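Student: I would love a firmer grasp of how sequence relates to backbone shape in proteins. Thank you; the sequence and its tokens follow:
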Amino acid sequence: MALSFRIRAARADERDALARLLEAAQLPLDGVDEGFPHRYAVACVGERVVGAAGLETYGAAGLLRSVVVDDSVRGQGLGRALVQERLEHARRLGLGRIFLLTTTAAAYFRALGFAPASRDEAPAEMRASLEFAGVCPASAVCLSRGP
């Protein structure tokens, strides 16, 4: 039986739920508070937040970040749906290119249409962001695609 979930804009009172998901997945919390909730979408099963994804904007480019799904519901399409929602949001904003950094999920994002990119291809403002400049190590893979 397929999992029934819905994706919607995050609410301010869901910050702790996002923090728990990120901590469980060993993903950084740095920079989340600056963009939460207005830059995030969440996946819910009933009222329970089981996934999230953020999109920061830097000029005409976006940074997909904090894509996370609870272990208990992985493999059921939530991650893909969250990424698609954030890409649709990027299109509505008129963004031309979406970047992300990952240390563990490059193959997953390649399957979603992202391709290897140099960090130098990202806008200077994005490269100066907390995510690029400090949170993600230099060994993190940089990927990008159009929205």
In short: The helical segments are 15-24, 32-35, 78-93, 106-111, 124-127, 130-135. The radius of gyration is 14 Å. The domain at 6-145 is CATH 3.40.630.30 (Aminopeptidase).
